[in-house]
# Entry
Amino acid sequence: MSQTTTATAPLVTGTFAGLSTRLDDERRAGRTVGVVLTMGALHEGHASLIGRAAAACDVVAVSVFVNPTQFADPSDLTNYPRTLDADVALAAAAGAHVVFAPPVNEVYPEWPTPPATTVTVRALVDRWEGVARPGHFDGVATVVTKLLSAAGRCRTYFGEKDFQQLAVVRRVARDLSLPVEVVGCPTVREHDGLAMSSRNVRLSPVERTAAVSLSRALGTGADALAAGAGTAGVEAAMAAVVAEEPLVDLDYAVLVDAAELEPADAAAPGPLRLLIAARVGQVRLIDNLDPRASR
Ligand code: AMP
# Structure
């Protein structure tokens, strides 16, 4: 990597022009750019993405924007945690040089009227999170397109934690020829296996304890697959784990192919993925696992 001249304190900007100008200058000086898009309330999962970007790129930009167009449930948007000062500190400590934290009217100038132009992905979105959260992936695809267009040529780091989102973003980047390389990064977990999520802070102590059943169910599903169970057996094994927790209301626990996320035969040779989603109290949580990894 070439030497960067960036100071320790990150540039915090709220305008697309501020972001673009800085990253254009960096590229013109021969430096490579890494971008991490977030909705804030940053935790170690986000830090791992920023760290990956910092290890591979000369300059790292992190966006913090709670994107209203991807929330199907208005109360979820209202209750989403907002912690910008702590986010800037965490991003800087993890290796970010630029934090882009725009007000909603910078991203959607006519808000609360949504934009007339949106990005709709036809593949991948008619199941799982796309069904549970109508319009969610259009909102994701639209804001990702806007943010990455402003960022320009870069590597961009997304978590496998949101596995369907990662697949959708790869698809958007390919279909719209965005000048980006999308890098998927492993899920960071709490000590007991719960996938880190900005929403976890909204769990009560008993709900937090119950929430670990999602990652336990994924492990049980992987064990069932390794023991020779078929798809129905794998999915039943996962559902049985969650059913033991009265505070957890299962939405889906499924075995899919890892590329198109379609229901998969357990004997299929290609990459598979276990996906799970459940409501724990008022909080919807998702998780996933490669059932054949390290087995
Ligand atoms: P969010 O702020 O929840 O929209 O997430 C921003 C990025 O961080 C997305 O690419 C997520 O997939 C990723 N991310 C969130 N939680 C984790 C985690 N526990 N491990 C790794 N990446 C994560």
